[in-house]
Every structure is written in structure tokens, then in C-alpha cells.
Amino acid sequence: MLQPSAAFLSTARPRAVAIWLLVVAAMIVGIVVVGGITRLTNSGLSITEWKPITGIIPPLTLAQWQAEFANYKQIPEYSQLNSGMTLDGFKEIFFWEYLHRVLARTIGAAFALPLIWFAVRRQIPAGYGWRLGALLALGALQGAIGWWMVKSGLSVRTDVSHIRLAVHLMTALVTLAGIVWTALDLLALDKSRLAARARLAPIAIVAFALLFIQLVYGAFTAGLDAGYAFASWPLMGDSLFPAGVPMLTPGWTNAVDNPIMVQFIHRWLAFATAAGLVWLAVRTTRLGARAGFWVVGLVTLQVFLGIATLMTGVDIHVAVAHQANAALLLIATVFAAHRVGSPARVS
């Protein structure tokens, strides 16, 4: 007769759990793209209430649409920027924010319900339950952060706080990275029940640090509309850094709140980030993994998309592609870092 631990091991289905996680990861990439569209179309403040359960039902009658529009008319964005908006115009921006919120609820259900199913059937490998629970909690926190972000634009301001926007985006991307990393651990476990979990090697820590800082500055650039400041590259106007830029006090706040400084940092930090990722990619390819080639290809594309976003005056299609590619680059980096950090290959 099997001992309890052996019985549990025999019912574990690491591959099935990993495939489920990768499906959820793909859904998160989708919501990152929709979130980018929501920001670029200035749709994020169109829904002024947070109704986690009943909010799944959109307005269905003319009276309900007029009530939603009346709520929107109470906030500064309408009175200062969109006072001439029609109900049809409101429906257009409402669509993107509504889709964003529906996708968030769908992802929550797609994570929570299968997690319960796998747990009840004892198919989660030993030691992974706490990690999956933590990822679920992080996803729930993301919903609260989203509303915290929206609230920052419902009074006084005509947009959301760029800092809260960055927290919102980075929480989603950290969750994405954690899900993909866990899926890769589980796939390794499926190949060998004795496989140890990968660790973060020093080179991966450096690459991730550079990438996450760059992603934060991407969120700052979006939140401050800093991409519109200068539509030229490599110069900002006629110089590397424009003369006569008004500076904030204290000085350090310029790196966070000054749109021109934020665009400047985002421009040039990209190349330091690319160097760190290529370094990781080289280490990965030396181990015989293809992930390194994906990292190099995607980081190169990301640089060109960033330049194109500036030079097209933040064309929505290019800007959305830039944000979508950032999520794909993060996934490729997780694959590369996981390969470098696999116990049998750590050097």
C-alpha cells in the first residue's frame, strides 16, 4: 500500500498544471495589450465605480447608459477635456475600460477555479501549493490596485497617477513572470520527479533588475504622456538633452515626475537594459537553449518599436505593439533565466 506522500506524488499532474499556467500567462499578455489600448485611448476613467461582481453586466438600456454617462460627467476629465462628448463617444471609451475589467475577472476565474480543481483532486505537486496560492493572492491584489489607480483620476486630476499606473502594470508583469517561472519548474518536474527547482542566478538578477526598471519607466512615460514631448531620435529636438527644460524641486523628483526627463531616461536606459539581456542571452545559448535567440530578437525589436513610437508621435498601433512586445520579451527573459538557473546547469 502506498504511503501518503507516495500516494500524493502518484496523483500529481505537473504537466497539466503547467499547461494551465501557460494559458493564464497568455491571457495576461492579452490584458496587458488591452490595458495599453485603454490608456492610449484615454478610456480608463470612463467607469467611475468599482463593482467586482455586478460590474460584469454592462449598461443594457438607454437609461442605464445615460446614468453611466452622468457619472462620468461628474469627474474633472469630462469637464476639463471632454465636455462636448456625446453619448456615442462615451460608449467608445467605455468599451475599452469595460473589456479591460471583464478580462481581469475572466483571468481571475481562469486561475482560481482550476486551482481549486487541481487542489481537490490532489494534482498539485508537493511544495507548489503555496506558490500557486501566492500568485492567486497577487492577482487579487492586482484588482484592488487597479481601482486604487482609477480613483486617483476621479477628483482633481484629469488622468490617473503615473506612479499608480506603474504599480498596476508592474504587479501584472511580476505575476506573469511568476506564473511562467512556475510553469517551467513544473515542466522540468514532469520530465524527472527528482528535478530541483531553478534558482535566480546572479546574471539573471541583473538582467531582470534592468528590465523591470525600464518597464517602470515605460509606465511613467505612458502615464505622463511623456512620449509626446519629443518626436525625434536620437536627439530631443536639436540636442541630446534639450536646453531650458524647467526643473522640479527637489531635484530627484525630475526622474519621476518631469515628462522630459522621464522620456530621456527611458530612451537611454533601453540600451543598458538591452546589454544586460544580451549578456543573459549569450549565457543561455552557450547552454544550448533557444531562449537566448528569442531574447536577442525581441529586445532588438523592442528598441526599434520604441524609436518608432516616438517618431510616429505615439501612433496607437505602434505604441500597443511596443507594449505587447515588452510582455513577450519578459516571458523570453524568464525562459532564459530559468535555463541558466536550472541546477544541473548553474555555473
What layout of secondary structure does this protein have?
Layout: H1 4-11, H2 14-40, H3 62-72, H4 76-81, H5 87-120, H6 129-151, H7 162-191, H8 202-223, H9 254-257, H10 259-286, H11 291-311, H12 316-341
* Radius of gyration (Å): 22 Å
Contiguous uncertain segments of 5+ residues: 1-8
Instruction: State the helicity in percent bands.
Output: 55-70%
Distance between the termini: 42 Å
Number of helices, counting only DSSP H or I runs of 4 residues or more: 12
Question: Looking at the structure, what is the overall shape?
Answer: flat
Could you give a short description of this structure?
By secondary structure, the protein is mainly α. Helix content is 69%, strand content 0%.
Give structural notes.
The chain is mainly alpha-helical and 347 residues long. It is built from twelve helices and no strands. The protein has helices spanning 4-11, 14-40, 62-72, 76-81, 87-120, 129-151, 162-191, 202-223, 254-257, 259-286, 291-311, 316-341.
Any descriptors?
347 residues; mainly alpha; 0% strand; disordered N terminus
